[in-house]
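--- STAGE predict ---
source: upstream dedup step, 1 unique chain passed
mode: sequence only
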Amino acid sequence: MYRYLLLLGVAMAAGFQGWRTLYNNYAVDVVGVTGLQNGAVQSIREVPGLLSLLVVFLLLFIKEHRLAAVAALVMGVGVAATGFFPSFSGLIVCTLIMSLGFHYYETVNQSLTLQYFSHTEAPIVLGSIKSYVALANIITGVIIWAISGYAKFSNIFMFFGIAVFLVAIYAFTRNPVDKDLPVQKKKMVLKKKYTLFYILNFLSGARRQIFVVFVVFMMVKKYQFSIQTVTILFIINNIVNYFMAPIIGKLINRIGERFVLSCEYLSLIIIFLAYVLVSDKTAIFFIYIANNVFYSAAMAINTFFQKTADPEDIAPSMAVSFTINHILAIVVPIVGGALWMYNWRLPFIVGSCIAFVSLIAAQLVKVPKNEY
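--- STAGE serialize ---
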């Protein structure tokens, strides 16, 4: 299962990183979207995340590992098609297809990881896979940096989309299942004891959207970052993540989820405010890199859940958590886009406030002492 998840994880990462690296320059330079339109596209991108709850019902008809492969295939199609529809409506449709595959894969991926690996193994496995994912992102960035000067957007999108599609076809023929694991419930699970897990996911979804939707958009729109500069930025970030992800996995085992999450949220409060207060282009570049130091810390939310959950609740709870994670993710981009039109600093001030609330919630994280 580790090899299976690693294979699909690397492919999905390369496809999404390719799409993400190209998106802002493609949207601004080719499609010509405004801040409000960008917010609308990003809100629609999160609709499949809100519908992740449907994974529970899909598992009645298809096994989890096969659903992961199908989701990867769908994402590949969405990425490949993006460059061939250079209009606002075309961007929306292709983004929706890409996002459907991405979110359903992530839901199943997290579920399988927590099912197949023990409490002490899961943080290490998550850190290891995130490290390889970062390496795939680095290679993706190098490829885009090397060919973006003369290759069309449509050709680059198609290259990464087809690569994901082919890996998904291969993965569909694999069968890494362990039949001795607890059978997962095939219905929605909502329990009072998981309330903090739901709250952390709710806040994470809102906070992440501020970062994903508006930070790079600000760099391209306000500071005129070129696609080559954005690519270099992503490469550096992934070099940081390559080394930090395994370290954070080990830190979770050593000092616990509460401390790791607290460090992440405290740093985000400072960084979001830095985006507001700093106006130097070079400084913004390095602030974004600092933004990613604790990028992998979010896995502590899932390892916290694993240590407090009933084993048969993992698959349906991952679907529920993804839906909760995306409740505000639908609203934040479009509202943030409207705030951007009034004052571009407002979305980042909101992001800092959300990070502060997250920091308070993180102090309630507790797991049995014998887990460390």
